[in-house]
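Hypothesis: this fold can be encoded by more than one sequence.
Test: take the structure tokens below, design a sequence, compare later.
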């Protein structure tokens, strides 16, 4: 346990000391919320627009932190030989993986709290009422997208292209699934694409839990789809993940 906690602390120090990580992974969703909250007015989904945007941007923050941030981090560390060197140390691989995932969850939890505080201060959005379901949703979303992040890292071959690849996936997914506003006016083929993406179902859960105050169990289909995406990511990661850098 001491080794695990020490590694979590190390992962946190590495993250927060990286200005790029702190800006693009942690702060960017917060800045987007302030920007979009000042643009949208009226109601969305029957609630004040900033409140609906807050739920959507928690979804974006989850994908940005647990999927994109983790994938880029793992690819860079692998191609620099850091993961290979770690495998040669007494630190067990499972402890390193668990500490990395825990650190990612911590960042997302802090980011979610910050979004709620900013929403309250700037737009008067309410704090969540279904706290237990919110916690479960955050953990489920973070684990699902982290699994997809590890899978993506397994398939990306170069550190130089990692950011471009994950953002090519992340940003269209965020637009198509409602992270930045409703998608009902999108063309039907774009909505159809969004309907198969995991972020749509995490946002659906967040809308139910935060906007309606419902228990997470009221969205079993969304939970199932998100879990299926996470399981797929785990399978790909188990088959393809490597600790050594690619040659050539």
């Amino acid at each position: 346990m001491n080794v695990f906690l020490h590694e979590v602390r190390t992962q946190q120090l590495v993250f927060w000391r990286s200005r790029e990580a702190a800006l693009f992974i942690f702060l960017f969703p917060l800045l987007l919320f302030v920007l979009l909250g000042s643009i949208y007015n009226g109601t969305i989904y029957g609630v004040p627009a900033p409140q609906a945007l807050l739920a959507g941007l928690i979804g974006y923050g989850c994908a940005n932190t647990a999927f994109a941030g983790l994938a880029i981090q793992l690819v860079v560390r692998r191609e620099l030989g850091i993961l290979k060197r770690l495998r040669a140390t007494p630190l067990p691989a499972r402890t390193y993986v668990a500490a990395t995932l825990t650190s990612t969850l911590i960042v997302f939890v802090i980011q979610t709290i910050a979004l709620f505080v900013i929403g309250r201060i700037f737009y008067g959005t309410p704090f969540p009422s279904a706290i237990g379901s919110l916690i479960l949703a955050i953990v489920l979303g973070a684990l699902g997208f982290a699994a997809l992040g590890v899978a993506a890292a397994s398939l990306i071959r170069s550190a130089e292209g990692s950011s471009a690849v994950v953002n090519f996936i992340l940003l269209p997914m965020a637009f198509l699934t409602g992270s930045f506003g409703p998608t009902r006016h999108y063309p039907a083929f774009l909505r159809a694409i969004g309907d198969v993406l995991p972020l749509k179902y995490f946002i659906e859960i967040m809308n139910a839990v935060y906007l309606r105050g419902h228990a997470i169990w009221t969205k079993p289909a969304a939970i199932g789809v998100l879990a299926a995406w996470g399981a797929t990511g785990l399978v790909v990661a188990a088959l393809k993940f490597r600790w050594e850098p690619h040659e050539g």
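The two ends are 39 Å apart (CA to CA). The longest strand covers residues 43-44.
Hypothesis status: open.
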